[in-house]
Sequence to fold (309 residues):
Amino acid sequence: MKIVERGLALVGLLSLCLLFIYALQDAPTDENFEKKLINDYNVYALQVPDDLNFAGEQMPLQNPDIHERMDRELLVNTYWQSNGLLMFKRAKKYFPVIEPILKKYGVPDDFKYLAVIESGLTNAVSPAGARGVWQIMPATGRENGLEVNKNVDERYNLEKATEVACKYLIEAKEQLGSWTLAAGSYNAGKAGISRRLREQNVSSYYDLLLGEETGRYLFRIVALKEILSNPTQYGFNFRDKDLYNNVPTFKVEVDTAVKDFSQFAQKFNINYKILKLHNPWLREPHLNNGSKKLYQIEIPEKGYYDLVR
Fold:
């Protein structure tokens, strides 16, 4: 009997050792990925990091109000797992487009996470009329040189929209004095933030009493920055092949009207749907272009799309 008990104890100890070794593994490999999908879900209280910042400006986490608000956004965004995984997937695809434009304009790299919370890195449409990844309003787009009408809406052009966002943020920083306040103004407007600073006689975003959306805004940005920068720490497991990638493209210049984009697409061995995927700023199946404006239309390189014939 004692021999059996010792044997069972040895088996138990060995099993615990194996589980411990398995738990220490980091990013899943192809071999163990499927196994980890089963019985691998737990909910934990999160430790708010002691040192968080936005664009180099420190968060005053010693303030209990700030600490609790940060804790909330980390929890909400960590345990909204499906959305979180989609953010990792889309970031791999769109951050390489956004990052060099931010750098070109001297806007801190952290602002790419603003685009994440604005639209989920999709061409979102808001009830107020904002459009695209950067959620630009029609007047703001036109004021910054974008064409915005039923035929062409360049708010859906990620490169051009990112440039508009940069111009706005630089102006907001100069007017309000910090990148933190500039970020808040992207939600509430420069005039709105200025008025509240004046009324409440403070100079920091963290000292302002704001409405629910604007009050959570910067904390959501920093939460997404923290989570997307440290996936395994927050329980996100994926392989590089699980993420989305940009399809290489080349640009075709057009300075005339285009009567039918379906026929136009066929010249490049793609269909209208694929043309629209790469050029969402083309809002109709034709291009008016009475002014002979020069447009650059992106065409995917050959071999990336198999058409069903």
